[in-house]
């Protein structure tokens, strides 16, 4: 059965379910444009009033941070419609490839991988120079348009924060996601980090550069040792 939503007084039919987590993503056509509907899935265990407050706050913040990102030169999907109260955003559907897929392409040359990493680093620096923390930096949350432009996606966990600590944590999240998703790309991430720091504001560069190793160290302490991971896996399979 085809489901539809009334958005801005217009009935919009939802197409295929593209992804589902805390929110569901559907393809659709909105006012003649290929688009994506992002819809918040209510948490049944949460009090309805609290759920409504959180939904409104998070979706409002997402739209604001994405718009601010565009203002400072970061390419993000254009928001075509939003209703934070209902937890709905309609955004441009990007014609391109996920960055994760691009990095996994065997045809990608090492020099091209480094260029992409550097472009991603510079894009994150633009966010951080505007004190925008993305919150979920991964190669799944970035795409390449057909013309080669890099697009950052999913500002659902974004926030505004001036601290070097939060910026370093944002980069650590990216490093963990990057190296776990794309093995043997440490050199690419090193170039990404160098490009990021070079593009970071003078006021933040030294602070973030000092914080980042400390955040890495904390992160490593929280991770279980390889032997413990292997033992857990063996116990689970027995």
Automatic annotation (TrEMBL):
The keyword tRNA processing applies. This is non-specific serine/threonine protein kinase. It comes from Hondaea fermentalgiana. Residues 228-238 have a biased composition (Low complexity). One of its GO terms (cellular component) is cytosol. It holds the Pfam family Kdo. It is an enzyme of class 2 (transferase). It catalyses: L-seryl-[protein] + ATP = O-phospho-L-seryl-[protein] + ADP + H(+); L-threonyl-[protein] + ATP = O-phospho-L-threonyl-[protein] + ADP + H(+). GO terms for molecular function: ATP binding; protein serine/threonine kinase activity. Its EC number is 2.7.11.1. Keywords: ATP-binding, Kinase, Nucleotide-binding, Serine/threonine-protein kinase, Transferase, tRNA processing. Residues 211-223 have a biased composition (Basic residues). Residues 211-238 are annotated as: Disordered. PROSITE patterns: PROTEIN_KINASE_DOM. InterPro entries: Bud32 (IPR022495), Kinase-like_dom_sf (IPR011009), Prot_kinase_dom (IPR000719).
